[in-house]
UniProtKB/TrEMBL annotation:
The keyword Transferase applies. GO terms for molecular function: glycosyltransferase activity. Coiled coil: none annotated. Keywords: Transferase. This is Sugar transferase, PEP-CTERM/EpsH1 system associated. InterPro entries: Sugar_tfrase_PEP-CTERM_Stp1. It comes from the Bacteria. It holds the Pfam family Glyco_trans_1_4. PANTHER family: GLYCOSYL TRANSFERASE GROUP 1 (PTHR12526:SF600), GLYCOSYLTRANSFERASE (PTHR12526). It comes from Sphingomonas carotinifaciens.
């Protein structure tokens, strides 16, 4: 078996948010086919606990706590002329950890998860770069909607990060994106080299409505799940609570908007004081809430790649209403409703509340299109792991 180096900007466990779900499944896939050496950052103590089943399959594991403050990273970015996205993850301890692995093992290839980790990739080892999304495009979108100093900061980050992404793709054996739409966007922006879409999947056996028990919730629960300190999610729940929910409750006064996700910021927590809004914070298992939901919503205005929250809801056979941005890149086969204006979104939610409680067609679409094994099969050839 070959020795592979896997670099991740965030430890792939527990797989409880979008990027960690993708990296966890990719890491597990590669660890079944090679001796994988993991070097990753940890944001909190939970990220340093390797699941026993995965630990048994890893050849080695080095987790570096990320302790650099945002002000320090910002100052380093201004002084160095580099993107903040890179200075925030610049750490001598990670440099030393990677060097130790390369000295001790015959690394045949490197899998880099997220552009922030590209500077750590050994220069003389073939590299597969998983950008996931075009991060520079996200900052460009933020710049368009910002004012004053923040507009300048976002525009600077978009420009510098785009140059970094192009440089990395030029040296990578392959550059991966989570959807063909993201891959096409990167090509159009000057991305070079071999650019490939490797889509996210879903563990349909885990997200199975037949084996999940619903939590006690109202009969007209409207659910959104996600990391609630993430700006696109914050803006999504605020927009829904301000502009969509009042329209829905005019005709469905019993409807309750439930926001499920860890680390809710103050702006999200305050929404919970409103009539018809519940903010749970961290929950032991999101599947119970998905099973209880009458309709799941993804009202994101800013979204990149494939939204796991949509795939999970589809797998649980829930009716789903999403914005065009949240639905982009997902081959849903018409099994979810797509709307953008408050009025259209509210009408779609009301129609879902009035319609069938289950959407087995959505689950069938997930089973046929988004099995993790099928989605990750191309990695074997890309990483030189074919039998």
């Amino acid at each position: 078996m070959k020795d592979l180096l896997f670099l991740a900007h965030r430890a792939p466990f527990p797989p409880d948010r979008g990027d960690k779900i993708r990296s966890f499944h990719i890491l597990s896939h590669l660890a079944a086919r090679a001796r994988v050496h993991l070097c990753a950052f940890a944001d909190d103590p939970a990220d340093r606990v390797v699941p026993p089943a995965l630990a048994a399959r890893l050849a080695s594991c080095r987790i570096v706590p990320r302790t650099k403050s945002s002000p320090r990273a910002g100052l380093e970015a201004l002084v160095s002329g580099r993107p903040l996205s890179l200075t925030a993850f610049a750490d001598r301890r990670m440099t030393a950890a990677v060097a130790d692995v390369v000295r001790a093992h015959p690394i045949a290839a490197t899998y880099v998860f997220s552009g922030q980790m590209a500077p750590y990739a050994p220069a003389d080892v073939p590299m597969t770069m998983d950008m996931v999304d075009v991060d520079s495009a996200k900052f460009a979108q933020l710049a368009e909607g910002a004012r004053g100093p923040m507009a300048w900061i976002y525009a600077r980050e978009a420009r510098l990060l785009a140059a970094h992404e192009r440089s990395v793709s030029a040296r990578a054996a392959a550059t991966l994106f989570v959807s063909e739409a993201e891959a096409a966007l990167f090509r159009a922006g000057g991305g070079r080299g071999r650019i490939v879409a490797v889509e996210n999947g879903i563990d349909a056996a885990t997200y199975d409505p037949a084996t999940c028990h619903p939590v006690a919730a109202g009969a007209e629960t409207i659910l959104l799940t996600g990391q609630m300190d993430y700006r696109p999610n914050i803006e999504a729940v605020t927009w829904f609570a301000d502009h969509v929910l009042p329209i829905v409750r005019q005709s469905r006064p019993a409807a309750v908007f439930v926001i499920v996700g860890r680390a809710p910021v103050a702006a999200v927590t305050r929404l919970g004081a409103r009539d018809g809004v519940v903010v749970t914070g961290t929950v032991p298992d999101v599947r119970g809430w998905l099973a209880a939901a009458r309709v799941c919503v993804a009202p994101l205005r800013l979204a990149r790649g494939i939204q796991n929250k949509v795939l999970e809801a589809m797998a649980m056979a829930r009716p789903v209403v999403a914005t065009q941005a949240a639905a982009e890149g997902i081959d849903h086969g018409g099994t979810i409703a797509v709307a953008d204006s408050p009025e259209a979104f509210a009408a779609a939610v009301i129609a879902a509340l009035d319609g069938p409680a289950d959407r087995p067609d959505a689950r069938a679409q997930v089973l046929s299109r988004y099995d993790w094994g099928a989605r990750l099969a191309p990695l074997d050839a890309l990483m030189g792991l074919e039998a």
